[in-house]
Design brief:
The protein is an alpha/beta fold and 176 residues long. The chain is 53% helix and 10% strand. It contains 7 helices and 4 strands; from the N terminus they run βαβαβααβααα.
Length: 176
């Protein structure tokens, strides 16, 4: 199976890639994350993913560009519901790209994080699959999260401190 794997960063992708390859699935990393801010955070995560791709011989596609304005426009003031909108934006673009480029299906590294709303990710993935007529491969990667974080540290990958959007950055640092 040739699978497009939406990836938010290297640390979240490590064990997803490993797990999929163990199932004889060929993942291609897909970096499309207009939600990640500020710009240096976006760049650090992208470079981390490219380093992982190189070290694991996994193809990677960098799609789109830094998208602060696009992301904020898509939220349309719905800041309290931003996570669902964010998942929808990213998974729809992943499904669309997968369909247009003859992948067998798609999934996301978002499914590894115990901090993300798993049910909403699944709902967004299934909606994108239906919209673009391409299978969404569901895997609960969460049991691999801590292992992936450890592996990322060992590989020297950039380790982010928050989900990615400016709102999650504020929440993270207000708690200190």
């Amino acid at each position: 199976m040739n699978l497009l794997l939406h990836a938010c960063c290297g640390p979240c992708a490590i064990k997803c890639v490993e797990s999929l390859k163990a199932e004889s699935i060929s993942p291609t990393l897909f970096y499309f994350n207009p939600n990640i801010h500020p710009f240096l955070e976006y760049e650090s995560r992208r470079e981390s993913l490219l380093k992982l791709a190189d070290e694991t011989a996994t193809p990677a596609i960098i799609h789109g560009a830094y998208g602060l304005k696009d992301f904020l426009n898509a939220l349309n003031g719905e800041f309290d519901h931003r996570c669902g909108i964010c998942y929808q934006i990213r998974l729809e673009e992943t499904a669309k790209y997968a369909k247009e480029n003859d992948f067998d299906g798609f999934t996301s590294t978002l499914l590894i994080s115990p901090y993300q709303n798993h049910k909403t990710i699944i709902k967004s993935g299934e909606a994108a699959a239906s919209k673009f007529d391409i299978p969404f491969l569901y895997r609960d990667f969460r049991p691999l999260f801590r292992e992936g974080q450890k592996a990322a540290r060992e590989m020297g990958l950039y380790m982010q401190k928050y989900c990615g959007c400016v709102f999650s950055e504020e929440e993270r640092y207000r708690q200190i």
